[in-house]
Design goal:
21% of the residues lie in helices and 31% in strands. With 504 residues, the chain is an alpha/beta fold. InterPro entries: GH.
Length: 504
């Protein structure tokens, strides 16, 4: 976890010992190959003389090593951790460092948000009901216009929550002198969020480089029971913000409020990813590929290519696959720079009839963009923007009842995302999450024409049947250990739970 609290008795370190051809230190070949090698690992939490020992296989990942927390007295500063790994055959010693937080109990009524470093999800307590239970939260919501909608009526807060969205990302008003909010009105809004249990993603896009303003806003809001996380740079790469701007603000926020993660949204295919991403715990990706000309800019009347031009979707082809390619790239970038994996969130397009985009997405396209993000390991969805079209408001409200459900979050945030292969029809994207004897399977047919071929999806051994249909046609069946279906409509999305032998 990104942090531990006094009520936690045990934590765990995650050790990745995978082989990289891009980053790291040389690993000499020995008899039997890399897969037969192991590393003797020693972990030291220096200040408390906590010493742990473990053995991990070379080229393995997600090795968990439990450790007791009783010797780490709660405090605001993190503890320094050093790892030393020695090959079982002797020789080179590999080292790594990290930090572990065990924070004091909050006495000001404010919330705490933990980030799961293994699966990328958020864990929260329901402060509205004074619950001490930690629950997984899969954020599903919109960026919401403050001066365009929320500010107009306090009742809009309840209306938004009633649609099924579990967080709200409020977009500040750049037209104000402080480029943020009328804080008198905002605090009434936040009182309502506290009352009804609507989590807040607080946006400082216009002010995050003004450290005096950041300090004032964080200190004003950090004790809110509805505070979920901070949001600093909105497309800092596309704006060409100073490369160290996000990290400077990140360090300030962490010094003021270590209880909540920091997020930002990157717009470019790869423009100083390492520098900008260093200023956040969570990275959002906003790829808008619907009804856009990716080769010629209708706004600037110029060509768009790999080095020049802005067409509203950087290095895009103008297909749904742009979304999955970008998320996969961001995952690769994190490994290339030697960084621990950071959770990624998707920002599906929910607007249109403006600048580069000639129309709104259809309902099917909206669901496809969301689930394609989820299939490629997005652990949160925040669409741009609300209010949206009637059609999109309806379908996203329906989908919120599925994705915000505790059962679904248990899969998506409680297991690794595993890509599954569909045979018999091109352009399908399938992923699964297995917990115990059950697997959640998300199936997307990304082609637009209807299709009549038979499709099979290979499953792990022991699959015995579909136990629940959460979204879609309900026509998938388990036959011979595979999911099977004949025919379907274009842009069809199905979400099902498969039972395995030994399940109930």
């Amino acid at each position: 976890m990104s942090l531990y609290t006094p009520g936690d008795n045990q934590g765990s370190f995650i050790i990745d010992a995978d082989i990289s051809y891009i980053y790291g230190e040389p690993l000499q070949q020995t008899g039997g190959g890399h897969s037969s090698q192991s590393l003797e690992v020693e972990i030291l939490v220096d200040e408390v003389q906590l010493k742990l020992q473990h053995t991990v296989k070379v080229n393995s990942t997600s090795n968990e090593l439990d450790f007791p927390l009783h010797s780490l007295a709660p405090r605001s500063q993190p503890y320094s951790v050093t790892l030393k790994a020695t090959r079982s055959t002797g020789g080179r010693v590999y080292t790594a460092t990290t930090q572990v937080y065990r924070l004091p109990e909050r006495t000001d009524g404010g919330s705490v948000t933990k980030v799961d470093s293994l699966y990328g999800g958020l864990l929260v307590q329901n402060k509205t009901s004074s619950s001490s239970k930690w629950s997984s939260l899969l954020p599903y919501s919109f960026y919401v216009s403050w001066d365009g909608w929320l500010e107009k009526s306090l009742s809009n807060v309840q209306k938004f929550k009633d649609q099924g969205y579990n967080i709200i990302h409020i977009v500040p008003n750049a037209g104000l002198a402080n480029q943020a909010f009328n804080f008198t009105e905002l605090n009434l809004f936040l009182d309502k969020c506290d009352e009804i249990g609507l989590w807040v993603m607080y946006d400082m896009r216009w002010t995050y480089k003004n450290l005096t303003s950041v300090r004032e806003q964080v200190n004003m809001l950090k004790t809110r029971k509805s505070m979920l996380l901070w949001y600093t740079g909105d497309e800092p790469d596309g704006q060409g913000d100073p490369l160290n701007a996000t990290k400077i603000t990140y360090d300030l926020i962490k010094s003021l409020d270590p209880w909540h993660p920091v997020s930002l949204c990157l717009n470019c295919y790869n423009f100083y990813y390492e520098e900008y991403s260093s200023g956040a715990d969570i990275i959002l990706s906003d790829v808008y590929p619907i009804a856009v000309n990716t080769s010629w800019s209708v706004v600037y009347d110029t060509a768009c290519n790999t080095t020049y031009g802005c067409c509203g979707c950087d290095d895009c082809e103008g297909t749904l696959d742009d979304i999955s390619v970008r998320l996969d790239r961001f995952t690769e970038y994190q490994s290339w720079i030697g960084s621990a994996p950071k959770p990624l969130w998707g920002v599906p397009m929910a607007f249109g009839n403006e600048s580069f985009w000639t129309r709104y997405p259809t309902a099917d396209e909206e669901v496809s963009m969301t689930m394609l993000s989820v299939n490629h390991n997005a652990k949160g969805i925040v669409m741009w923007d609300y209010p949206t079209s009637v059609e999109l408001a309806q379908v996203t409200s329906e989908l919120s009842r599925v994705l915000a459900d505790e059962e679904v979050a248990g899969f998506l945030l409680g297991a690794p995302t595993v890509a599954l292969r569909a045979i018999g029809q091109q352009n399908m994207d399938v992923a699964g999450w297995r917990v115990g004897a059950r697997m959640l399977v998300s199936i997307l047919a990304l082609q637009t024409p209807a299709w009549d071929s038979s499709v099979t999806i290979a499953l792990p051994e022991g699959a015995r049947g579909v136990s629940k249909v959460l979204w879609g046609s309900g026509e998938w069946r388990v036959v011979g250990g595979q999911l099977v279906k004949k025919g379907g409509r274009g842009l069809e999305t199905d979400l099902v739970i498969v039972e395995f032998e030994g399940g109930h």
